[in-house]
Design goal:
Blueprint lengths: L4 H16 L20 H13 L19 E2 L4 H11 L6 E3 L16 E3 L7 H12 L3 E7 L2 H16 L3 E8 L6 H13 L4 E5 L19 E5 L7 H7 L9 H10 L2 E2 L11 E2 L21 H22 L4 H6 L7 H5 L24 E9 L3 E11 L4 E4 L26 E5 L8 E5 L4 E2 L9 E2 L4 E3 L6 E3 L1 E3 L6 H26 L4 H5 L2 H17 L9 H34 L13 H25 L3 E5 L6 E7 L3 H24 L10 H24 L2 H33 L6 H9 L1
Parallel strand pairs: 1-2, 2-3, 4-5, 4-6, 8-9, 19-21
Antiparallel strand pairs: 7-10, 10-11, 11-12, 13-14, 15-16, 17-18, 20-21
Helix pairs in contact: 1-9, 2-3, 4-5, 12-14, 12-19, 14-15, 14-19, 15-16, 15-17, 16-17, 17-18, 18-19
Length: 752
């Protein structure tokens, strides 16, 4: 009675307001009769019979009160009680206003045609629940619903909305209205407690969970939804005016008064010595909030609406069906005519919105978020801590005002799996809900920049993943520059060898009249040395910032000057072989020993290479490109070779010339020592072929700057191999053993 006494006061307040309203039911005074059913079905049916008969003990089908003026019944507080009452009241077509939560079963106009539900349909309650879950990050939630049609319909809508927002059901339990056996209740609670979910949502007729075995402290810290109601002015002033002495017939008020003020009202000059006498100036306005809420909310608000709902319907009825209330008093069972007018008033907003016909009222639902707080002495209070408007996705909540359950010193967390940090993605587990997952590190080249990412995303081509793979960083533009160590080493090597080659050329020019220079065809030696200088210098085109012009020049320049060098070696090899063969008297090979033949050979070989390069440039020439894939954190500016087929044809042609030179030199290795330059030519071509054969697979397996460095290295090493193998022995004789660089010594060697 302490918990629901506000229901009684709300009826009194609403009736008092209507009786003072000159525009609503003028010249009519409303009254009421209070019957308590103690939330028991048997007493609810008995109270209905008492109301119908007018007196107790009840006599079915008899009315013992000749002036039965009651026209409508407001009750019960739950759908179960409402159904029990409706089965009896419906026989007499008595309008029944059910002020409990809306129930689909009661909306059946065939079974319950005379029941009007004052509670809202709660069509968006599932949206409000999901918004609250999302606000606190609860993605692993248990659900307990009443085992009836209303619970099942709510379950379907809530489950769909939860799945849409990535929230999973840890379990779903259906609580019957009454447990068949006492231990069934403990089985249900044990299944709930075994779940890993820390948050449980309860919906429906939950009376079965509020049994004698449950204490109020078990629900301390619970958050509840209540329909958003406007504050009704005047209720606090009304409470100040209520006093048991002003209404001595209200036994409920007397009992409530004595409990909340812990006093005793005087009765026939006797005072209970165990309690103090109640003070005369006390009022309900001074009652603590835990005993009596000063704001009409919840079911009390439904009752308030119900009284006005009935008043508006009666007002319309009096204007059309009867001129005076006395006509209704003469026909006590005329209340069935009230149904037509009750259907023309919105049962939820009856005191504000009047409707007739088949019209409907579309309103935006809003809910209060209440925090249930229990106190010693089995007292409890519901404190408003927030509001939610589901359709508009507006939620405001004051978390500082929330008292959480004792096991949770702060906002509880309820998740199946630990949140995946940025840099990871969720990996679903087979046979598990989507909320249960493992966290997998994003693969190379991809990132996730939010928590619980479903998929990792690819960084743009001009960006690369951070080490944590939680963001994309801009790539640095790079190329093989002179300033970096590798570029500096390769450039220095190329310059040093080109200087060294120039020095060798100078030595040969200065000693051009010596036998060793003349014996090795000095003109071909000059061409070879000049081409080697250009080979070394051509490698510098591969270092530094590439441009479209450099991309075209560097490969063609390298190919042509290298072809000149190899053709010169081929000419020298052929000259050595022919010189040995032409020593016989009358040999016709002497005419092939002239320099013009060697020049023609070099020109022809070079011309063929130039034609290949021309085809290359005319079909698919090299071009400048930005390589974003070779190095993770860099954009490499490099030259794309264009047609790889033509590129390898150019290299293959040089390889063919080198192979011919190597073969001829190898066959001439047994010539006399005086003329035996073939050995050095053989070694030089062996080095050249070895370098470029090794270059091909290395070139294919490297990318970016490493590929460029590999080609520069091959150019420098192969050129250096030719220089050293062919000219080092000659320079040694010219510079260090000048005594051996005479015609007499060479003839002596020839004789031996």
């Amino acid at each position: 009675m302490l918990k629901h006494y506000q229901h009684f006061l709300t009826v009194q307040f609403a009736v008092d307001e209507i009786n003072k309203d000159p525009h609503l039911l003028p010249n009519v005074t409303l009254g009421y009769q209070l019957l308590n059913n103690f939330h028991q079905i048997q007493l609810a049916v008995e109270s209905s019979l008492v109301w119908l008969s007018g007196k107790g003990p009840t006599i079915p089908n008899y009315s013992c009160d000749r002036q039965h003026k009651s026209m409508v019944v407001i009750g019960g507080m739950s759908s179960t009680l409402s159904m029990a009452m409706a089965r009896l009241l419906g026989l007499y077509k008595v309008p029944q206003l059910s002020y409990g939560p809306f129930d689909l079963l009661l909306s059946d106009e065939v079974l319950y045609p005379y029941v009007y539900q004052l509670g809202s349909r709660e069509s968006t309650l599932h949206l409000a629940a999901v918004q609250l879950m999302l606000h606190f990050g609860w993605t692993w939630v248990g659900l307990v619903i009443s085992d009836d049609l209303t619970g099942e319909q709510f379950f379907r809508t809530l489950k769909e909305e939860m799945a849409w927002n990535g929230i999973c059901l840890a379990f779903t339990e259906r609580a019957p209205e009454l447990f068949q056996k006492e231990h069934d209740e403990f089985k249900l609670l044990s299944r709930i407690l075994r779940s890993s979910s820390k948050v449980i949502f309860i919906y429906g007729n939950t009376n079965s969970l509020d049994s004698k075995n449950m204490i109020m402290s078990n629900f301390h810290g619970t958050l509840m939804f209540s329909h958003f109601e406007r504050e009704i002015p005047g209720f606090t002033d009304f409470l100040s005016s209520v006093h048991p002495r002003a209404n001595p017939e209200d036994i409920f008020q007397k009992s409530f008064w004595e409990v909340v003020f812990d006093c005793k009202l005087s009765e026939i000059n006797s005072v209970d010595i165990a309690h103090e006498r109640c003070e005369e100036n006390s009022s309900f306005a001074h009652v603590p909030h835990i005993y009596l809420n000063k704001i009409i909310i919840g079911k009390s608000f439904n009752i308030y609406n119900g009284v006005y709902f009935f008043a508006h319907a009666l007002h319309h009825m009096l204007q059309t069906e009867a001129r005076d209330i006395s006509e209704l008093a003469a026909k006590p069972l005329l209340s069935w005519k009230l149904h037509h007018f009750l259907k023309c008033v919105n049962p939820v907003y009856g005191f504000r919105v009047e409707l007739c016909g088949d019209g409907t009222s579309m309103t935006t639902e809003a809910y209060n978020i209440l925090n249930f707080k229990s106190f010693p002495g089995r007292f409890s209070v519901e404190v408003k801590v927030g509001e939610v408007i589901p359709q508009e996705k507006v939620l405001s909540i004051n978390e500082e005002d929330i008292d959480w359950p004792e096991d949770f010193p702060q906002i509880p967390t309820s998740i199946c799996s630990v949140t995946c940090s940025p840099g990871y993605r969720k990996q679903s587990l087979e046979g598990q809900p989507i909320c249960c997952f493992d966290c997998t590190l994003c693969p190379d080249g991809k990132i996730s920049n939010k928590t619980d990412a479903e998929q990792c995303i690819q960084c743009p081509e001009d960006q690369y993943p951070s080490q944590e793979k939680d963001r994309c960083l801009p790539k640095t533009v790079t190329y093989l520059a002179y300033e970096e160590t590798l570029g500096m080493i390769l450039a220095s090597a190329a310059l040093c060898f080109s200087i060294l080659t120039t020095f060798v050329l100078g030595v040969f020019v200065m000693h051009r009249d010596t036998p060793i220079v003349k014996a090795n065809n000095c003109s071909l030696s000059y061409i070879l040395l000049i081409s080697l200088i250009l080979c070394f210098l051509s490698s510098l085109l591969f270092i530094g910032h590439p441009t479209p012009a450099i991309c075209i020049l560097r490969q063609t320049t390298f190919a042509i000057v290298f072809t000149v060098a190899i053709a010169s070696i081929l000419a020298k090899t052929i000259t050595v072989v022919l010189a040995f063969r032409a020593t016989k008297p009358g040999s016709k090979l002497r005419r092939w020993l002239g320099t013009s033949v060697s020049y023609f050979l070099i020109f022809t070989c070079t011309l063929i290479q130039m034609c290949l390069c021309g085809i290359w440039l005319g079909t698919y020439p090299p071009f400048l490109e930005m390589d974003t894939h070779s190095e993770a954190s860099f954009i490499v500016i490099q030259c794309n070779e264009g047609s790889l087929v033509t590129f390898y044809c150019v290299l293959g042609y040089m390889g063919f010339l080198a192979l011919v030179s190597f073969t001829l030199a190898f066959l001439a290795r047994n010539l006399p020592d005086t003329f035996n330059e073939a050995k050095y030519l053989t070694f030089s071509m062996l080095v050249f072929c070895s370098v470029w054969i090794a270059f091909l697979p290395a070139y294919q397996s490297t990318k970016g700057k490493a590929m460029v460095a590999m080609e520069i290295f091959s150019i420098v090493v192969s050129s250096a191999g030719i220089l050293i193998c062919i000219f080092a022995p000659k320079c040694y004789v010219i510079l260090l053993r000048a005594d051996r660089n005479t015609l007499k010594i060479m003839k002596n060697k020839a004789d031996h």
